[in-house]
Amino acid sequence: MFIEWFTEHLLITYNDREEIFEKSDILLEEPKIERIGKELAVPEETEVIDCTGLVALPGFVNTHHHLYQTMFRGIKEVQEKPLFPWLIGLYEFWKYLTPEAVYYSALVGFSELLRTGCTLTSDHHYVFPNGQPGTLIDDQIRAAKDIGIRFHATRGSMSLGKDQGGLPPMSVIQTEAQILEDSDRLISKYHDASDFSMLRIALAPCSPFSVTKRLMSETKDLARKRGVMMHTHLAETTDEEAFCISKFGRRPYELMDELEWLGSDVWFAHGIHFNDEEVINLKGSGIAHCPSSNMKLNSGICRTSEIVKAGGKLSIAVDGSASNDGSNMWEEVRRAYLLNHLKYGTEGLNAYEILKVATRGGADVLGRNDTGRLDTGKAADIILFDLNGIEYAGCHDPLVSLVCLGNSSLTKMTIVNGKIVVKDGVLLTLDSNEIGKTANKIANDIVQYHRNS
Fold first, then answer.
1. pTM for this one?
2. Is the residue at 33 inside a domain?
């Protein structure tokens, strides 16, 4: 199918030439962009969509999430706690996760992400409760296929339980043999490294306080043998830093360096508490900046501008919904912009730069050069915004409008792989109202079961 796009406002490409077009067309043929230009000649049967007055960007790329946490938003027992006590409290709920809960939590998160402009998302699922199937990543993958989002599933893991000096209870950890066997299975069954791939697998031990050094090393060996990326939480809190120094005699970054967990095939969630030397020596590793979660848990502020200036790879992520209460990617971009200016003032990243981090930056962090930019031969992952409403009136810069204004975070249209999946804020592939009803029942059953047990 061919689709031609008209926009009389702006088409911001973030391609290698940093092109910005006015009154230009985009010609699509699934799954890629065929041409960009003015008054393109197209076959007579081409489907034409008039996007006069809209702004087009590459789709946002979310580089860190915990989709299962959409079932655990607003749990009153943990609302006013920092990370470690917050986790300890929530493990007692998470140990009741089921395959059905994982599937519907993924649908909820994917729905929010797509409606707010995310076309490619990763997820970090590391909770595998005792007594439940070990195939919970498969349930997420099924949800991604059903809803039509480009997905990087990471096989998370926890092997260091409370009885062994770690943070999580023994009820949610697995043996290292189980973890590695399932990691290899998922890569063999699902990983697609080709251009325009809708599904890739990465390996993701949860954190320095929930896995052993041996698992980190063996995961690295498996990932590099199989050619997949690696992911983990790092330098999120001062508690984590104190834990690593006490247990390993290393700062979190130093531990990763020792374990050879740095490089272009690695990305870290948060990256807040790096020192000056570490910021300039990430060795190609990417950072997923999670502003809302970091603010809510009082974790700190990522050194975003310094990472960018040092040539590091920076992206934006929503993190788990239990720590920020949503999967709203557009709002996360706005908060990243504002938090950056809170920290750096007039030297902060401007609107164009922060949107580049949210699009091309995220794709680069996930090792994708086929998306995150609009250009001939690149993936047809496009988001369209309508800035004609009263809430944008009087603003003279559309990019500033996108990161500072608006009464809604819903796109006019979200296109993934050349297919329209959201139009006027409505999900087209599945019934989001029915997803929400089912998810609410599952979530309420889990929480009430725990509170009554």
1. 0.97
2. yes
